[in-house]
Amino acid sequence: MDDGLMRIGEIAAFFGVSVKAMRVYERMGILKPVKVDEKNNYRYYSAEQVTQLDALLELRELGFSLTEIRDLLCADGSKERYMELLAHKKAMWQDKAAHAQDRVNAVNEAIARLEASKPPVKLHELTEDERAELLGKMVCVDQGLHERIFARSLLSEALWL
């Protein structure tokens, strides 16, 4: 340490981030070192910047992009602005969670249909009437008895053409 400052490698190791990530944060203007040694180009960070890096990493965990973080940290930094952005991110995650739950429900429905389904039908093992009835269901022929019988006879004829 130099005058209470931490070198880039030290702060990176302390937070479990790479030096490369620290340099990206610097290039984006999110977290610039307070001092750069002109002789060896070492970068040094203050205790206040340790707090900023901690906030940056927490925001990353919450799903904020680096651009959003830069805009947030470089803005006025008011509590109201932070609350607004956090509320927006919360709503986004709730929306994603709802979509994920919809997909889970759809998978559960598919599993239930599969569990309740009958074994596959082998058409060559069915009688002519059974084939006609099955084809009638497939083409949604579900009307009165007379129409079903007529549809079966048409489908049966089609099967044997």
What does this structure look like?
By secondary structure, the protein is mostly helical. The protein folds into 3 domains: about 5-75, Multidrug-efflux Transporter Regulator, Chain: A, Domain 2; about 75-115; about 125-160, no CATH class. The chain has helices at about 10-15, 20-25, 45-60, 65-75, 80-115, 130-140, 145-160; strands spanning about 5, 35, 45. The protein has a 3-stranded antiparallel sheet. Strand 2 and strand 3 (about 45) form a beta hairpin. Helix 6 (about 130-140) crosses helix 7 (about 145-160). The longest helix has about 40 residues, at about 80-115.
CATH topology of the largest domain: Multidrug-efflux Transporter Regulator, Chain: A, Domain 2
Shape: rod-shaped
Structural class: mainly alpha
Number of strands: 3
Number of domains: 3
Poorly predicted residue ranges: none
**Strand line-up of the largest beta sheet:** 1-3-2
Rg over CA atoms: 33 Å
Specify the helix fraction band: 55-70%
* Percentage beta strand: under 5%
Order of helices and strands: EHHEEHHHHH
User: Main β-sheet: number of strands, strand sense, barrel status?
Assistant: 3 strands, antiparallel
Question: CATH architecture of the largest domain, please?
Answer: Orthogonal Bundle
Mean pLDDT: 82
What's the N-to-C terminus distance? 91 Å
Short description:
By secondary structure, this protein is mainly alpha-helical. Helix content is 65%, strand content 4%. The chain is built from 7 helices and 3 strands, in the order βααββααααα.
